[in-house]
Amino acid sequence: MDHHQGRSGGTExxxxxxxxxxxxxxxxxxxxxxxxxxxxxxxxxxxxxIQVMQADLERATTAGQNARLLENASLLPVMxxxxxxxxxxxxxxxxxxxxxxxxxxxxxxxxxxxxxxARPFSPLPSGIPQVRALALGRSxxxxxCAGCHDVPQAKTLLPAENLFHLACKEAAPALEARLLLGxxxxxxEGHRNPFSPDELAALAAWYRKNxxxxxxxxxxxx
Length: 222
Hints:
By secondary structure, the protein is mainly α. Helix content is 63%, strand content 0%.
């Protein structure tokens, strides 16, 4: 993958803070009008990726988490171009890879905040009554998620996380964004998320309802 996304090398010794200021000014100028969030699938996934990157940046402490941040930073400008984002957005997205690579978390966080203002992640829509949604979420978790996530394998670069623990540590938008992007179907389906928005919303509701029990003890399985 081309991690540089067509960028020029820049001037040797350029001050990072000055470059960040120029980037943020360009983004602010290009996004001054009220953000119009794209409701199509590509737009929703772009907004979700920005949300996930913001959450990951706050807790990136392991080699695996840093590797995931770098991978997502490589994907971000490609996804931005796919939805017809303004040049200022694409330029800001391109800047993230170098900031993450150099562990300049403050600069990366500032760019992500600007992008999130332009591409806010909307809650997953659900038309299912709460009682039914919780039952559906419980059923999906047990059938499709529990095998890997309830007792994660720790001896991997980026192990699966206990989703009840994650729900007690992260805000609802970040959790829902992870479900939208992280759940994959079979190869024959192009690894697309196999669940409908109603099903994903039900799954998120189940994790949020049981977040406290998940935090009280590792390995708990509501």
